């Protein structure tokens, strides 16, 4: 590896280095103790120091020095971890520079010339390895070369970060280096002559956590399915842990949840991921979660500043975040003050002159004659220019959207109301408003749920006045200042007349609705009358939505709910419809108009509760896992008395999915929904902890899970209003922040995805095991190999040439969730086949794939791969060519045998039967005489069948005996076929005429089987089971040779 020239004193260097080769200008040196077996104590000590100390000269065991005659100062220009590498650099210097340097007269010119050449070589390497993207390209290049040399992973494995760390085995530490790449984490150590390497794929990591093993030592614990490892470092523990969690999350979601997780464009290509990209991604996810922005928003600018807050009469320090369509401000103290301004609302962005009292000021004016003042804005010119540019773009888009909306209305008039004179877009809009509910259901149905306590009118009026005062001081609408005062007002309860407006404001649904004019109406026009699985599920759940509420005793309300849910199913077909969406939509319809309820549902399902409402409810399960950890941290006494918290999840899951609407009286639950739209999921988590805390004694006294569930099903607050302690809890800011919840989600998503993966494997083995005679342990190992083949292509396949959605889909049946294409199948076939067929092996493997690919989609699932039939039947079927009506059958047969099928699937003659799949490859069943109605062999096909048998015997210990047995069987079958052919060419006794004299020679599977059974050597050969465990172990070592951790 070429290095930036660095000065060293040659006299000092000779104490630790041995010169191997030299000439007038260059020295090749070896580190003492390296390169020789059985080194001295000095060599062992130097080797240990090389690992523990962060020094280029000490780490590399070989180096090349540039020296000038008569000088004690030299320059290190190259280093290497192996003799081969350093010798290549030495040879290049000798061949390209040595003679050229002899013409220089000045020693300084020699040094300057060589340094320039070395820097040029470094620049070429930096461009090829993308290290220029890193903060310190030179240092990263050195680490990358060591990573590639030490672990031998393909060059496409992208190194992201590296740290000096210590790996613990019990109480024994081992100092070394931790390398974090896009698909693996790796550790290397060389201490006192002992080298240790381990590589752990992220896909094998089931848990990442920080633990305190001693009062003075925090470690990162990495748990896999086989073992756990502890890593500690003197500095940057939090940084390392955050990077590991991010990389594990990205890898697992890319490999295991590719359909349910939409990665950012920059993360879809693992080769583009750097440490800087991870930091930006973490910040972006925090901003999206803090302000509930759409997932497609990109973070543009981040700058510290001070925002003028009129209610506090001061400038509040914080951070300004700008995205594609929004301007966001968060105070330095999280939760103290936040502000969200859609750029579509911005009228102008101005830069007043600097003053001593208002340095670097910026004035942002919005509609409604409001303005926001920022001062001390870092990089003010850049931020303002970027903001102004995006504001101009949004204005153009807004005008185009308005024109398009008008054109759509005119098209609607022309198509559906042609001939009606005097109709205008306004008339049509008014007519469309009559189709849907133009006002909230609660304004029509003033009744409350039976038995509910209604607040007296004066109290409701007082709440309205409090909110009106708040609006006058803090602003109204989406760009309202959100402070602790708003928290307290929401906790006390939002008045019914303002509830819908504030829900739309807090959730950002009002902005989305304004940005997508007529989107809801378009969805209704396109979806009504269209039947699908989602609409069938919606119809089943319509009358289960708040059945006790008077508003939903009317068909008009049911129809409105149907329209909202159906429109959302067409708006987001990936989610479609999920249970509990009907309950949320019902609550929203009570306080908002129909279109507003639709956009509230969009905000909840896609931004506020991401990944909650899909087939696997991954997001809800992640938050359940977070909830359990919070119980252990904050309700430690309850956790000790009830160690198994899993039964609680069956009840708490409905709390999260329905926001406590199904667990509390409606008048109490709607106040929880109020807090949810202001605080997000943190309100649900805090309230859930309060419920468990209030019921801690009853839960601890439960004798079984059923009794504990009964305690939770009758909520602690079966009366209204909410207790004062709960109101206080929701009004306070608390110590559970959005940033903390997001970090917990990252960690627990790893566990949830791995639990899903383990469940899928268990179910796949349960389905396949009854059909094969392979032990469950071997079948499990075979499943892992099958899955690893898919992962390897995702790790290091050519970008863009592999579509993972075709090969893995969690929504498929368990035994079909992973599928291999032909090239992947051939790779595994060559490693696991019970016998190879010499030059015909590849052709037989291709035919095997075509035989197993019953649905002809060019993919084979695990059931097909692991559920085959006996060997002889397989060989017979593989030699039956595809049906064709061409008269030149012999030519077709020869082509079928010598050329691989193209396309790689065929239509087999005779009745298509699904062959059962692993014993064909692995040979675990004995030969039996059960006969299926296969097509007959012609003479050419039989000859090729015999050739395959002969090729299978190459290298067998009984090759001579088996060859004689095959010759005997071949002769017997030929005679049988000849006799049968002659008999069919003559008239029978009854006078019926047989086939024409030129009919083909044929033989059946039953005849071949009977002939084979006459030779005991062949029967023994086919009945002998293959050592499957040895095959799997050998293949595992080959496929996962980098993934098996070494022993520390």
Automatic annotation (TrEMBL):
Annotated membrane-spanning segments are: none
The organism's place on the tree of life at top rank: Eukaryota
Alphabetized UniProt keyword annotations = GTPase activation, Repeat
One Pfam family matching this protein? RabGAP-TBC
GO terms (molecular function) for this protein are: GTPase activator activity
All residue ranges annotated as the Rab-GAP TBC domain in the record: 493-680
- Which one GO biological process term can you cite for this protein? system process
Q: Which PROSITE patterns match?
A: TBC_RABGAP
Stated name of the protein: TBC1 domain family member 8
